[in-house]
Specification:
single chain, alpha/beta, 367 residues, nine-stranded mixed β-sheet
Length: 367
């Protein structure tokens, strides 16, 4: 890998990031074609509705300059017929001399076959290992879905330094700054669905929308776990309904409440779970059936714990504000019964931190 290679694969990764919100349920991919003279001849990203893969878009932009070129792409070119033809064959037809890529595709229909096809025809394939982690994180939901068959779930919350998310009397205002909240919307933009509980839906009356203003192929699906169908018809969630809201309830819900929501066009699904609650594992499985690769949980203490306890959470993202609430009545990040011993604590690994605003930081890690 030369510094020039690093520059172009970095550019391809930046292009792939532009595909967030546009590619799901496919992976986000970026591609750069650099001609034989070392000039960038074409670039491309993948958008699901446009069908064409990033490599095809970049090759079309490059035209005849693709002959003898190096193509930098963030994910292994496919080698099978899907909605489009094999990208490996398109690269061969264009006369590409070299392909630089950080990551093999997790799709079992690809999984090394694209690289093998290119090498068999004399194309030099270089694996950009040093960029593999960035490429994998960019598509962690896609890789997880391919392996586990269910959406990748991120539990996001905002807390004080002592781990409190709500005060016992007055919760007017925000825990974190506007800068942190803007960052949250960027994270929402990367997800297919957002899940909350009825407590948050009633007490905070949120919209739970993606307000980045950045184009996405389908709206962020808002999912409310509401075991008794208590969500008011005048709530912001219902009033802003545009085929982007679903209520998950239980058989204990009053039929008239369910009918009231359905009369507003809001779909309601019964998913009985333990303790009279909505079954979270069922909910996540159902979202997977809807081709939702990634789900973000923005909820209260009870649902946060239920999600952790039922082991549906794959990643945590906690924004910490430079504040302390203290007290035994302020709600923690995760309530419920919790673990009864230190040995039973839920382990988080690959933990990292980053600054968000002045004196504010975020912690993320994987379960």
């Amino acid at each position: 890998m030369t510094d020039t290679d690093r520059k172009h694969i970095d550019r391809a990764l930046l292009l792939a990031r532009e595909g967030r919100g546009l590619a799901s349920p496919n992976p986000t991919v970026g591609a750069v074609v650099v001609d034989a003279s070392g000039e960038v001849a074409g670039e491309g990203i993948h958008a699901y509705d446009d069908q064409k893969h990033a490599e095809i878009v970049a090759l079309e932009n490059a035209g005849e300059s693709a002959k003898g070129s190096t193509v930098y792409v963030t994910l292994e070119p496919c080698n099978h017929q899907g909605r489009t033809g094999p990208c490996s064959e398109a690269l061969l037809a264009a006369g590409v001399a070299r392909v630089v890529c950080p990551l093999e595709d997790a799709n079992p229909q690809v999984a090394g076959a694209g690289f093998a096809r290119l090498r068999a025809e004399g194309v030099e394939v270089e694996i950009a290992d040093e960029f593999a982690r960035r490429a994998r994180v960019l598509n962690e939901a896609f890789f997880h879905f391919a392996k586990a068959g269910r959406p990748f779930v991120t539990l996001k919350t905002a807390a004080t330094l002592d781990g409190k998310i709500a005060a016992p009397d007055d919760n007017t205002g925000w825990i974190t700054s506007e800068k942190a909240r803007l960052h949250v919307h960027q994270v929402r933009h990367s997800h297919d669905a957002i899940l909350t509980g009825i407590g948050t839906a009633i007490h905070d009356d949120p919209l739970l929308t993606d307000r980045t203003g950045v184009r996405r192929r389908r709206p962020l699906m808002r999912v409310v776990c509401d075991s008794l169908c208590r969500l008011p018809a005048e709530s912001k969630l219902v009033e802003s309904f545009a085929d982007d809201l679903v209520i998950l309830t239980t058989s204990a819900a009053v039929p008239k409440r369910r009918e009231m929501l359905e009369a507003r066009g809001v779909p309601v699904h019964v998913m009985d779970g333990p303790g009279g609650r909505v079954g979270l594992k069922q909910a996540i499985a159902w979202l997977g059936e809807q081709q939702m690769l990634s789900v973000m949980i923005e909820a209260g203490s009870k649902l946060n714990w239920a999600a952790l306890d039922e082991q549906i959470v794959d990643k945590i993202l906690i924004y910490y504000a430079p504040k302390i609430l203290g007290g035994l009545e302020s709600l923690p990040i995760a309530g419920g019964i919790g673990r009864r011993s230190r040995q039973g604590a839920i382990q988080v690994k690959n933990v990292s931190t980053f600054m968000v605003g002045e004196d504010e930081f975020a912690v993320e890690g994987y379960l």
